[in-house]
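Reply to dn_fold:

You asked what the input looked like. This is it:
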Amino acid sequence: MLWCAEGTAITAFASEDKKGLYVSIMWSIFQSGVIIGSAIPVGQNWNAGTNNNSRVNDGTYIGLMILILFRAALALVLYPWQKMVREDGSRVLIERYLSFVQELASSWHVFKNNLWILFF
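and this is what came back:
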């Protein structure tokens, strides 16, 4: 659900000709966070193993929690969508979402017409 919300935000804020660029920038930032998030434990626990009787320490988990909290706080300082104007001068409009029952009905319609999706 969070990935769907993230994708909706990225494509809603971008104009039609810039959506691909914005998605690529988002995935670059996302993957650099994965690299940093995995490099920290590797650096902290480089010599950890069963042969030298060392274990993963609490600093690994504390560092990852700090990164997660930083990213959550960063999301709070995003520019409000009501004030955002795209490069072409149009305003960002958030679409009215369907109810839960309507979403289930439309999902059923998609699956009924495209059974191959179930293989994925």
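The chain has a mean pLDDT of 78.
Hope that clears it up.
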